[in-house]
Amino acid sequence: MSEETAQQLTDTDAAILSWETWDRVKHTERFAIVAAVVFVALWSWLFARAPITSELGGYHSLATTILIWSVFAIGFNLLLGQTGLLSFGHAMFWGGGGYAAALVSLHVYGDPVLMLVVGTTFTLLLAALTGVIALRLHAVYFAIITLAMGQLLYYLATSPLRPITGGRNGLTGIQLEPIFGLVYLGMPLPGIFGTLWVNYEYLLVATVFVLVIAFVNRIRKSPYGLIFRAIRENEQRVSFVGLNVWRYKFAAFLMSGGIVGLGGSLMTIESQFAGLGSLYWITSGEVVIMTVLGGVGTLFGPVLGAVIFLYFEGVVDGFPIVGRYWLLMLATVFTAIVWKYPDGLWGMLKLIASRIRSSVEDNP
Amino acid sequence: MGNESHTQENGAGTASNSRRHVLKAIGASGAVALAGCAGEGNGNGNGTGNGNGNGADDHAPIGNYPIEGDTAMYGWHGPLSGILAPDGEEQERGFELAIDHLNNGGGLVDHYDPLSGDGVLDYEIDYVTGDSAGDEETSIDNVERMIDRDNIQFWTGGVSSGVCQALQPIAQRERVIQLTSISHAGPITGENCERYSFRPSMSARTSAEALAATLPDLLGDDVDFFQIYLDYSYGISNRDSMTELMEGQGWNEIGQSAIAFGESDHSSQIADLDEADPDVLVFTTFGTAMADGISQMQEAGVAEDIDIVVPLLSAFSMEPAGGDAEGVIGTANWHPLRGDELSETFVDAYMDEYDELPGQAAYEVYDNVLHYSAAVENAGTFHPPTVVRELEEFEWNLAMGEMAYRECDHQASRPVYVCRGVSESEQQETGTYLELVEEVSPEDSSYDCDIEPAASCEMSEYE
Predict the structure, then answer these.
(1) Spans of all domains in chain B
(2) What percent of chain A has pLDDT over 90?
(3) Contact assessment for residue B71 and residue B93, using Cβ atoms and an 8 Å cutoff
């Protein structure tokens, strides 16, 4: 294989740049990870500070927030896109992870890594508990029971658990300690790193983002993930083959919940706040919109969806006059894209790319 | 871009220009500026000599200081959608009027010595605004945008106490000064207090002190009272303050009933109230919930013999209630028909611009912009820790009367305006929902630093 590559290198440049090479490379696991690394390395700079692209009005803290919501959407998509289970209660994991991370920093210690670990562990437990109940139901009943459980948690946090959750005011006063006792996340990075990534917080968020991409990609490429997809296509057939469908669904639910909880904990670290909004059903709806907008069942689609959604919420919202209609504009964009391209933005990009490619191939 | 970007007509547009300007500067100087933020103190001394003579003080960069260029950004952030919007819209108008007066003179700027009417410290003032929607997460995102992209030096506005409390740590973390408005809950200048956050408006305790000083005269001495309150920090801190202070006046609390936030059906609370049969109801609520509550009490026939006290009264409550709120007693931060010269000056300027009578929300934000700018002028710099220190001993006396911040909890000691709701026909006639009953002096409405909520305040650091 390496000889072959070397030979191609010596042969012609055209050989490495050929469509065949591209087709081979783009489906490798390593390619997805490299793409994710390149993306996060340039993302904040391109979005907020690069000469031309930042004219769109992006800014660094939004770049960070987008990566965090992307983690949420990727985790959600593992359940919806990969396994075909539509949950309307994922805010419980997002908010649950956020509250758990906030509580550990308030009452124990505010090391960001500890917060991530506790937030994720809590959501895994929560997912195990809710999964046992919800996964007995199918399709729309599953969506409804997850919605109901999410709202149950919301009401618990609003009133009965107020001494713990802070009720309507949420949890404030979250103090972050240096990560591993070494450096505060708010510290600026030196030199070119500062220009690219601004501070250590971005590095942490970017690292989690890449790890989540790598993990989900591993699942997608593995035989295990193949069974998820088989369940999505035809649950009954999978059970006829002799596989325990419930167990696979449960595993998908756990993984999805865990990733979303990880994202929620990151959000607490970013905003130093955990509030009821994160548990509310609208949050569950927003992640559905992001995922569908970006492309259900794709790896990077949910990221695209998060970018568009939060760009409208965070930038268009601030435009003079038209700004207050951002939600209406987003709804229009959403409807137009989903109507024209049922596979979302990612599907749209793929379609455009393949059209360009075939026109190039036709006229060499 | 130079001269054209200085008008304040489209805040957001000019904001992004100035931000990019700064970012290019950061890019050009590599990370020198950023390293400076970390306080490594390697003597890079940037921030000086930026060519317009303002950067002569050599403070290390902190927050959004130093300012690049000759325009300083201010921010307003409050509710333009949702149930709190009536006050938010007033605030935004008051804010824009204040910026106009700072740059071009007019209004109270002409009557306030530290201000010139030609910008602040030779900087032209530009601004950005954001809609909080009364929601904590949205507000955090918006304020981060205003700080991060638009480089605001300070911001004011807001109604919800929950939002205010979620934003206070951001002011502290980013070293950008926040002057709160209307937000009433105790913890804002109590356990949640921050060095970079100041509350010029009343706290629940300030209102309760003022009510304790006036209610016995208005409603009698030996009074049985009942409380219905919203079950979260705004309601609870008002409930606690009212219980303590009214009982101190010899009033007798005969019961309490909580109502969940967002609940509009008051029937079980009204049943409790009817059973208790008090002389006075202390009803801590706001917005449409207050309107619903009062109209339901009237339908149930329990409101006739009971005087209703709503500790905090403002447009967002009075507008939906309309004539139903006639006779309701409560407190406000200011009253447009106070009758003093400065209030009249403000009312005239506001009516010229917007053709309606301003409420407390409009004036309060206007006042915040002015007294912050005066503190900057006195300090001679926008350097945030210096301005914070200036504000901590700042006293001013504009249309709200004698105001002074205190260092212990950043709560202003201030006059309180006890008001009463007027009938629908009077509303039409005067253009205001409230008549002024009594002005309570700062001495009578203040409380000591060792009393809750102030006692729980542990101030965070300056730099």
Answers:
(1) 2-202+339-414, 205-332+415-454
(2) 74
(3) no
